[in-house]
Amino acid sequence: AQSVSQHNHHVILSEAASLELGCNYSYGGTVNLFWYVQYPGQHLQLLLKYFSGDPLVKGIKGFEAEFIKSKFSFNLRKPSVQWSDTAEYFCAVNTGFQKLVFGTGTRLLVSP
Amino acid sequence: EAQVTQNPRYLITVTGKKLTVTCSQNMNHEYMSWYRQDPGLGLRQIYYSMNVEVTDKGDVPEGYKVSRKEKRNFPLILESPSPNQTSLYFCASSLSGDNEQFFGPGTRLTVL
């Protein structure tokens, strides 16, 4: 079965620090990749997605992610985090079987 | 405004008392899905629907039922709720099963 691993469960950063959240998936075929964000008390919103083409994708709020096919990874990055980035971040993978498989999430706390 | 709505947003009930959580989308999306979110487990898919009258099990379907009689609506039914179904439930919709999904605001269910 397909699975998605997010190795960092909790991350604490100071404002202006750089962020990288890891995401690895287990599926050898074509995938669509997503990062969603859930701000406290809110529903999930799409940060960015990768379907094909340039493996470096840019999303909203200064986030970007790089798809490395050989490593089955889709890590999320932001050069300088803000307090308002405090949220839970979910990586998700769609393998074409009409199902979206989510990772367990990473809680990010940014201290002012 | 394009959106996915869920009702109720909060529900406290007792074991065995049948309940329905409604989900509606106004984006004419073919695909709809239900997830439950539990701490440390991320989002897990309960059921999904690729179109009217077409539904299929996700990863955790036990104890749940769904129906898709109209394109815009996808209710989640708990015939005999149990305490292990206490969770945060999200409905989502998308143009197709491999596209980005738009999430509703969530329903926090407590089964006593």
Can you characterise this structure?
The complex is a heterodimer of chains A (112) and B (112). Chain A has no helices and twelve strands. Chain A has 112 residues and is mostly beta strands. The radius of gyration of chain A is 13 Å and the shape is globular. In chain B, strand 9 and strand 10 form a beta hairpin. In chain B, 0% of the residues lie in helices and 51% in strands. By secondary structure, chain B is mainly beta.
Order of helices and strands of chain A: EEEEEEEEEEEE
Sheet with most strands of chain A: 6 strands, mixed
Q: Name the largest protein-protein interface in this structure.
A: A-B, 24 and 26 residues
**How many beta strands in the DSSP annotation of chain A?**
12
Share in β-strands of chain A: over 45%
Shape of chain A: globular
Briefly say what this structure is.
The complex is a heterodimer of chains A (112) and B (112). Chain A has no helices and twelve strands.
Provide keyphrases for this structure:
heterodimer; A: 6-stranded mixed beta sheet; 4-stranded antiparallel beta sheet; 52% strand; globular; B: mainly beta; 7-stranded mixed beta sheet
Q: How is the secondary structure organized here?
A:
The complex is a heterodimer of chains A (112) and B (112).
Chain A: E1 3-5, E2 10-14, E3 19-21, E4 24-26, E5 32-38, E6 45-50, E7 56-58, E8 64-68, E9 73-78, E10 87-94, E11 100-102, E12 106-111
Parallel strand pairs in A: 2-12
Antiparallel strand pairs in A: 1-4, 3-9, 5-6, 5-10, 7-8, 8-9, 10-11, 10-12
Chain B: E1 4-7, E2 10-13, E3 19-25, E4 31-38, E5 42-51, E6 54-57, E7 65-66, E8 76-78, E9 87-94, E10 102-103, E11 107-111
Parallel strand pairs in B: 2-11
Antiparallel strand pairs in B: 1-3, 3-8, 4-5, 4-9, 5-6, 7-8, 9-10, 9-11
